[in-house]
């Protein structure tokens, strides 16, 4: 039964991490006055196109893409958290917080960015320092929040 608890704890921790990632991203947008990325909605449109899913007429499709794009991000964040829960279930020994947070953050960055790169929507080789910073800092925040939330639930279960 412990594996299911760790999976659920990981998914919940991933949701907490996603909230932190979004908060850091929105704070960056507010501080630097940068616009929101359209990549999530472009990805939603590209995925629906490849799956032959009709999102409706032009305006309806655009509105659905704007809703589905962030949902893909939430799904990715919860999924990476669930994967961390499975990892921690398998690895019973202590894992250092900085190493785990960095690993989970990088896993989330890859899980979110690789599909968009594969779809031809972005090319990380062209991002520059500002682009990489805007991507990595929120993902490191995600990793820290996800690992901390998971480990807090795990330690409270031992009592």
Outline the structure in words.
With 159 residues, this protein is an all-alpha fold. The protein has 5 helices and no strands. The chain has helices at 2-32, 39-50, 58-90, 97-118, 128-158. α3 (58-90) runs antiparallel to α4. The longest helix is centred in the middle third of the chain and has 33 residues, at 58-90. The protein is globular. The chain starts with a helix and ends with a helix. The model has no long low-confidence stretch (mean pLDDT 93).
Give a brief description.
It contains 5 helices and no strands.
Q: Poorly predicted ranges (pLDDT <50, ≥5 residues)?
A: none
Structural class given helices, strands, pairing? mainly alpha
Average pLDDT, rounded to a whole number, is 93
State the end-to-end CA separation: 17 Å
* Shape summary: globular
Summarize the amount of helix as a percent range.
over 70%
Structure annotation, total helices? 5
Major β-sheet profile: none
What is the count of β-strands?
0
> What letter string, H or E per element, gives the SSE order?
HHHHH
- Using only C-alpha atoms, the radius of gyration works out to 17 Å
Proportion of residues in β-strands: under 5%
Oligomer: single chain
């Amino acid at each position: 039964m412990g594996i299911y608890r760790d999976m659920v704890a990981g998914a919940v921790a991933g949701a907490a991490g996603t909230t932190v990632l979004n908060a850091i991203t929105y704070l960056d947008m507010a501080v630097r006055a940068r616009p929101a990325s359209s990549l999530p909605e472009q990805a939603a449109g590209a995925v629906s196109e490849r799956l032959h899913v009709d999102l409706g007429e032009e305006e309806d499709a655009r509105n659905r893409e704007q809703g589905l794009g962030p949902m893909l991000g939430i799904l990715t964040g919860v999924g990476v958290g669930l994967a961390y829960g499975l990892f921690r279930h398998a690895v019973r020994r202590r894992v250092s917080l900085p190493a785990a947070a960095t690993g989970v953050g990088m896993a989330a960055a890859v899980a979110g960015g690789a599909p968009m790169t594969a779809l031809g929507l972005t090319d990380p080789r062209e991002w520059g320092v500002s682009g990489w910073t805007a991507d990595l800092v929120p993902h490191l925040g995600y990793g820290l929040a996800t690992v901390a939330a998971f480990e807090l639930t795990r330690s409270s279960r031992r009592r």
